[in-house]
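Following up on my earlier thread - several people asked me to post the actual chain instead of describing it. Fair enough. Here it is, all 403 residues.
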Amino acid sequence: MSEFALTLWAWELTGSATALALVGFFSLLPSIFVSLFAGIIVDRFNRKYLMILSDGMAAVSTVAILVLHLTGNLAIWHLYLAASITGGFGQIQQLAYSTSITLLVSPLNYTRANSMNSVVHYGSNIIAPAIAGVLYPIIGLGGILPIDLATFVVAIATLFWIRIPQPDEHTEQEEITNIAIFWQEVTFGIRYIWRNNGLRTLLVITALFWFAHDLGGAIDEPMILARSDNNARTLSAILSIAGIGGVTGAVALTAWGGTKRRVNGMLLGFIGAGAAKTVFGLGQSLTIWLPAQFCSSLNFPLIESSETALWMETVPPRLQGRVFAANSLVLELVSAIATLIAGLLSDRILEPAMQSDTILSSLFVPIFGNGAGAGMALLYVGCAIAMFLVGLVGFKLPQLDRL
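Reply from S.P.:
Thanks for posting it. Predicted structure:
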């Protein structure tokens, strides 16, 4: 709800796709730095308390935004700062969370456990945007943020209550006493991946997919707002149907258990998501956007659960913090680059080009029109086609076939 409300607030203030994309960029930027050390931290410290710490820091950021808003001092750069804080600690939280799943369930159920995580993620997307879309005109940002704070209380209380297993102690847990050993620890994860031909190929193919996904994803909300004349309810309806699609896919995957070969499930998800997003980008109304978004979201539980299960199966639990952090470091880096250039590419190049007499407009105006958001739609469809092609190429790679 807070993310939705802050998106509307920032769009009303700036009307800029770059401004919204920069919120995502500043969320990713510290994650890249933190990923260098997060794996060591997660492998050496209690994962339960790391998750509590991360939730606590996110709550502090929310309080700060609320106070600034209520006093009339909130500016767009405050969102960048808050996103940086929550992004950095969120990286530690996500690693602590994903590595804990390995110790809570059997390998046979890795895909099911991760698909249940998708139910949680997409489930909130069903109701939160709908409620926020109705409440935002009534209570505004100042009324929605306190609801966010209440959820932090529930999350932290839950973590205190439950038991989170820790990995067995191992000889690699000795103190880091000099720079050489510290550097070996920092680079351990990426060296481990690079020595394994299958994991190396998995990292490259997923990085290509998520680069294309995040390049388009960084401008999807401003594209919708621009093409719907800033209609908050249109955006909330699309986000809600995304949640319904994600939950539907996750529930089905939990019952099914996924493809026998998890690599195939991941690649099929790439292809399905790319095809649905292509249709979404070509649309200009809810009659196209809603079914296309539903079909797109159906694929992501299969993608994310299959991908995560592959890493869980291949990497021993005591090494997962560092190896997962290395994987996350690469993905966060490509995502940050995609997010940074998406807004600039839309606002500075594609939007003006589609609204003036250029070669680009002569080729694509018959498809996308020349109104506000046409340039962003062109970028979005190009990224969706790239996602589709990454999935096709993946089926041709013997390294993935053997993984």
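The first helix runs from residue 2 to 14. That should answer part of your original question.
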